[in-house]
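Notes from hallway chat w/ T.B., transcribed later so I don't forget. T.B. wanted the structure written out for a chain they're using in a teaching module, and asked if we could keep both sequence and structure tokens in one place. Agreed to drop them here.
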Amino acid sequence: MRSVLAWLALASAGLGLVAPAWAQDGAALRVRQLELRSALADNAFGRPLVLESVQQGDRLSGEIHAVIAQPFALAAAALQSHQAWCDILMLHLNVKHCLALGAGADRRLQIAIGRKHDQPVADAFALGLGYRILASQPDYLALRLEAADGPLGTRDFRIGLALAPLPAGGSFLRLNYSYRYGLAARLALQGYLATLGRDKVGFSVVGRAADGSPVHIEGLRGAVERNTLRYYLAIEAYLGALALPAAQRPERRLQAWFDATERHPLQLHELERDDYLAMKRRELARLAAGSAAAN
């Protein structure tokens, strides 16, 4: 049950259909960047990043638009690899295992979702994600990871990314995740938020306290926002390590992801640095050992 709750906490990162419909090409995505220019320049993150969330009926969604430093050609080439997405997802506290399988139209990921502490893969929840490149153009990349079904009645699980070059250099990124839930999943989520997640908040400011301090969104949308940013920071850490020799990249990604999450301790702090690094090093070593044995 704890691993199911962990999956639901992860899933409530909900990257979904918040802003206008999914941009179909690089020009449309750059138009969206212009529409968000004011918010990208002035926000609580102190960087060109906009985070939104929504709960519509039985769908939880969250979305990030951000300017990234990497040129489009470099970032798009890296993110089209489904192995890259295993490297990205493994940075998250709750992802215990990830295998990139298949080729071409049959590319997919097999991941295991569990607790934020050490856990045998066999005790985690297995989730298969289909992997699709929706568009790969000289000025636009769009891809999606998706699963029809998750645990406890959750369904229509999606992680999507779109990327386009910017005229001044760098790239504009849209990260999107959503899932639907039934009654059992709603009850499990509410149970998590009433116990393990009762003190957690998101990033959106919904009011002000008597002393003028911000009141942040709570509940399901708060959980959506926390994990949406965790996923984005994982992509950022992955891309930031590409300039290093391959053997040095995993450790750099772990260090960078943890450091980035700790800039938002109210929302994202879960483990101490040494505990996170030790856990993830063991998980990566276990994954590497399994791959070596399979080969």
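Follow-up for T.B.: Residues 1-8, 11-20 have pLDDT under 50 and may be disordered. Might be a good example for the class.
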